[in-house]
Write a structure and sequence with these properties.
Layout lengths: L10 H20 L9 H22 L1 H6 L1 H18 L1 E3 L2 E7 L3 E3 L1 H23 L5 H23 L4 H16 L6 H23 L1 H8 L1 H11 L7 H11 L23 H34 L3 H25 L17 H25 L1
Antiparallel strand pairs: 1-2, 2-3
């Protein structure tokens, strides 16, 4: 462990997180009358306090120790996903959570995203160190190992079911491999195979929905049906989200004025809630802050010397940008509704703690750079 007081905390990373915390809690307070759970903003404040405590703990432990515990963390993450089938709590037809008395619910797949980033980063950096000029066979064997690491939590998460998080698992891995230096032909092959199977599944769906249900089951049919619902911009939730955003005008309806109701106003459609409160000007401010924050993380990745740190940041940035684009896009009807939340803004203890865990690791990386620079 190390004494974090020796090093300055990177304010260009910490200050945006504090602003995100203020926006999130104020927005949840303003949306109280369309949120089913009372005083949700107070719970979010408590989660943020716990999150900043987690950042401090991670910075105290240091990244070296965390990287050394990679496989223990991976095993713990997979075990927690498997345990949901026996001890999980079902909410909205999904068994993704453990219910802990006095705490609330914990969603292990959120932490698995960060664990997968750490695991991929250690595997990729070790491969690049061991094989500076790998052959095609060496790359193929490495990709098999990465695929096994990816598929185990993906299958368990898909069975919960939680398709949105599975997509994030794949996106994280794709981004990290893309910058790893392996031959691009592998990506073309994977994309080609993926497009073939997606086309096959959608073909069966459109030709015969009865046949689709017989092959893939009702649960998967409903997930595909929900994904495709966005294309016609139908559905009560999406229609009310669009009305809420469109009617907000330049400055919004006001903090506690919520003229239009839509479900999941605190999680999946939190951007619509925010847009309703603060209007076009508020949207520009939040989007600018998210962009500046993402660029700062990218710049940090470019400056860091350690490969494992570079890959960790790449995974985190890929995860954040994807979730930002997906969440905001689906509130406008531009992308499928996948149930993916907006990082740092949506309510959620597990998701928020997972992001704060990632920020603790990134602040450690930033401290290392500052130490070497000075």
């Amino acid at each position: 462990m190390k004494n974090i007081s020796k090093y300055k905390v990177d304010k260009t990373i910490l200050i945006p997180i504090i602003i995100f915390a203020i926006i999130s809690c104020v927005n949840l307070y303003g949306g109280a009358d369309i949120i089913s759970t009372p005083n949700l903003y107070l719970k979010q404040i408590m989660w943020y306090i716990a999150g900043f405590g987690l950042i401090y703990l991670v910075m105290t432990i240091g990244n070296t120790y965390i990287y050394r515990m990679t496989w223990f963390l991976y095993g713990l993450g997979v075990l927690s996903l498997f345990g949901l089938f026996f001890f999980g709590t079902e909410i909205n037809d999904a068994t993704c959570w453990y219910k802990i008395k006095g705490v609330g619910t914990i969603q292990p797949s959120e932490f698995m995203k960060i664990i997968l980033i750490i695991t991929n980063a250690t595997l990729i950096s070790k491969f690049n160190q061991d094989f500076p000029n790998p052959t095609i066979r060496e790359e193929f064997m490495f990709l098999i190992k990465i695929a096994l690491v990816l598929l185990l939590p993906s299958i368990l998460t898909f069975m919960q079911p939680d398709t949105g998080v599975v997509l994030i698992y794949f996106l994280i891995t794709f981004v990290m491999l893309f910058i790893s230096g392996i031959r691009y032909r592998w990506f073309l092959m994977v994309i080609g195979i993926a497009l073939f199977f997606i086309g096959l599944v959608l073909g069966i769906y459109f030709i015969s929905q009865d046949l689709f249900i017989k092959i893939f089951g009702t649960s998967f049919f409903l997930r595909i049906d929900r994904l495709l619902d966005w294309s016609s911009q139908s559905g009560f939730q999406l229609e009310n989200s669009l009305s809420s955003i469109g009617s907000a005008g330049l400055f919004g309806h006001g903090l506690t004025n919520n003229p239009i109701y839509f479900p999941e106003a605190e999680t999946d459609f939190v951007f619509a809630t925010y847009a309703s409160h603060f209007g076009f000007i508020g949207n520009i401010f939040l989007l600018s802050l998210l962009t500046i924050f993402d660029i700062r993380l990218i710049m940090l990745a470019l400056k860091t010397n350690k490969l494992v740190n570079k890959y960790v940041i790449a995974g985190v940035v890929g995860m954040l940008i994807y979730q930002q684009v997906q969440n905001i896009g689906m509130t406008f009807g531009l992308l499928p509704i996948t149930g993916i939340t907006l990082p740092f803004i949506s309510y959620g203890g597990s998701s928020l703690l997972s992001y704060m865990l990632a920020m603790g690791i990134i602040l450690n990386i930033s401290n290392e750079n500052m130490r070497y620079t000075n």
